[in-house]
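Homework-ish question, so no full write-ups if that breaks the rules, but can someone show me the predicted structure for this set?
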Amino acid sequence: MANKVWVFVDQFKGEGHPASWEVVAAGRKLADEVGSGLTALVFGEGVEAVAQTAIHYGADEVLLADGAPLAEFRVEAYASQLAKLAQDDTPDVILFPTTTRARELAGMAAIDLNSGVLPDVIAMDLEGDTIVVTRPVYAGKLLAKSQCAAKPQLITLRARAFGKPEADESRSGEVKSVDVVVDEGTMATQVVDYATSDGQVSLTDASVIVSGGRGTSNRADLEPPADITDEKEQEIWRAQQGFLLIGELAEVLGAAVGASRAAVDAGYIPYTHQVGQTGKVVGPDLYIASGISGAIQHLAGMRTSKVIVAINKDPDAPIFKLARFGVVGDLYDIVPALTAAFKERLDK
Amino acid sequence: MKIVVAVKQVPDSAAKVSVENGEVSWGDAPLVINPWDEFAVEAALLLTEEHGGDVVAVSLGDEDSKEALKHALAMGCSEAILISDPSLQNADTQAVAHALAAAIQKVGDVDMAVFGKQAIDGDNAVTPVQVARVLGWPALTLTSKISELDADAKTLKVERSIEEGRQIVEGKLPAVMSVVKDFGEPRYPSFMGIRKASKAEIPVWSAADLGADVPAAVVSWPEMSNPQAREVSNEIIEGGSPEEIAATLADKIIEEGVV
Ligand SMILES: Cc1cc2nc3c(=O)[nH]c(=O)nc-3n(C[C@H](O)[C@H](O)[C@H](O)COP(=O)(O)OP(=O)(O)OC[C@H]3O[C@@H](n4cnc5c(N)ncnc54)[C@H](O)[C@@H]3O)c2cc1C
Ligand SMILES: Nc1ncnc2c1ncn2[C@@H]1O[C@H](COP(=O)(O)O)[C@@H](O)[C@H]1O
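A: Not a homework solution, just the prediction itself:
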């Protein structure tokens, strides 16, 4: 039986992105449903170990393109490599994780393959040999059923929408090395360097997120150091004390720190933390919003969280409507108390 | 430098979007320029202010989309072009990308095409890389900063924001770039700008005018629906002290099995 279902494994510096394993597991299910094998694609340099892990998560075989031109992810190079393999072997569907890299790869490969891309999908249904997907659109205000009439169907799966994958180290499969088709001489870009962020939990993968909003700057009895005289600077200093408390709670919970746009725009915290329509879209098991009012653009980024907890001084804040648990109170009082309570209970 | 910036007209981000009788409706909320594209216009204008040149705004859509173009003109773009054709009614991102790429070719001598990160209606975030591929230009997506640009040597160095932090990439012009927010808040249109924009005649290019084949759409979205309303039972946690509240809340969260 031909291997008609393919999955792309996104890796960074030799580590498979966790969302990739969800995709391999989802690909396994789909392959079983259509009665085909599952082929995983692993590109990079020195990434043989990633290929083995793909087999543990459910791949029958891996096409491994390992070589210098693929050492750094460059979408142009990866798209050429992927398109070549897909032209030779004509899979019906290629699944990708919805990481920044893999989403762009799917988009670019769609052009080379004269097909279409269905990004950020939360459900797949098989109708004949066409996959009908469900995608949130308008920032999750609507759901679209969508499909692609051409082959291969290029589909990126939203992280955490397809269940937790499980590795089975006893699984075996074949790793086939394929030729690297990228010619470095034709490449117009070079990756020079990374300035990586500081080992914090990434928002999109986090199962718990603790977020702060404009309310973090609102504690009157908090006296800024005397050398900060500018009013704006004083406000930022106050907010940062609030975010320190949020960071402590996040640490106890192994959580990522999020923020509202108001907090980002006011300079309390960098944009990479922003949750919402113009920030990151997240769906953790637990989302704790403190000092966030719950504007529609913020809700757009976190409304699918399983359990939402709101801490806000204002009992009429719209965030309470979405919250499983709410506390009407000052985050400066509640957040540290919650940190202490979890420390005790989680034995940390 | 000659820069093209791609802008889309979308329902306001505060609109309550829903499906009524099978049609997407946003009530009486206004259509506006896609918020990410305002950042793109700002970035393009900053670039020409530093390096000289002009910014041409293009949009693909119906007659309504002229409003997004007028906003771009009012911000300071020097020209605007609408791509509109009945054959593009149900265009998917691939078709849009081919049409935008053809328009960029037709404008001619373009050094850079600047895009928003994502259109907030379809939430695809793939059009910029697709346009880059059609043109054969490098895709410098999610750029937060241009650290070097030599317009004569046609080289540049940018910082991109990716999941793992910032990535520094060197590339060549012409290039496609999509921008995140770090270039700066989009400027407000000036009074003069608004006057100029309101008088501007915006040329409309049909599919035939583009002088390239735009492939038919392969992606369709036959069915839109309202997500199921979430049944949340709200519970306000009360207590005599923050410690008491926190203790109850922590227990309840643990009971939900989410930590
Ligand atoms: C095009 C567009 C895109 C946008 N995209 C986003 C986005 O991606 N993400 C996003 O978040 N927003 C976005 N917004 C902004 C959004 O509309 C709101 O302005 C923003 O979310 C408000 O942030 P906030 O809740 O922190 O601030 P506010 O609305 O000012 O709320 C602060 C809250 O803190 C409470 N509070 C104050 N002090 C305390 C205290 N000591 N303890 C406890 N509670 C306290 C107050 O009661 C209030 O409810 C967007 C807006 C537009 C126009
Ligand atoms: N119809 C359109 N007209 C002009 N620009 C568009 C159009 N669709 C998408 N774009 C551009 O491509 C970016 C990404 O869009 P998308 O891939 O649809 O999320 C947008 O921010 C715009 O810059």
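Now go work out the reasoning yourself. Hint: The mean pLDDT of chain A is 95.
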